[in-house]
Amino acid sequence: GQQLNQSPQSMFIQEGEDVSMNCTSSSIFNTWLWYKQDPGEGPVLLIALYKAGELTSNGRLTAQFGITRKDSFLNISASIPSDVGIYFCAGNLNTGTASKLTFGTGTRLQVTL
Amino acid sequence: GAVVSQHPSRVICKSGTSVKIECRSLDFQATTMFWYRQFPKQSLMLMATSNEGSKATYEQGVEKDKFLINHASLTLSTLTVTSAHPEDSSFYICSAAPGQETQYFGPGTRLLVL
Prior knowledge:
Chain A is mainly β and about 110 residues long.
């Protein structure tokens, strides 16, 4: 099926550094979601974006819904070891309904002390 | 809020047997639930969309007779892997949508078919 392109694919950073990752699509999405998945667990919702241009924060996390509705980025400030995991973006074509998500390819984050 | 559970968390079965996986939304009603499959180091791939009281909608390439889905109530959907084979070994994850754009995921079920 269709997937969104995420970059970088993986990254190693030192504790305390800021992290930035993005997600791009050739199609327009009306909702963008960012999830984090730990090994052997299901994805956990981090941030949901509903409007083009929207900038939303959740603690040290900040995400923006691109103005073209074809991209989104996620920033993590002052990374800590528990930020390790795989981050997935996901797009939803429809608003107000429970329609299926298209997932990104994932960004694997590893934090070193 | 928005807690989704799955049972069992892991299961080992013999080839040819059937396995049932339950997905429950614990603190909200979900008219729609989704079933995903994830292989190691890969993204989530949608298998089917489950709507309460109606037949599931399967993605292209997913055998509906092999992966039986039942969404009998607003808080429970089940996935049954029938006549399981080793290639069905995977991580199966469900999600539930409380009627909006956001989906909340269960913790996943790891299936190993010997």
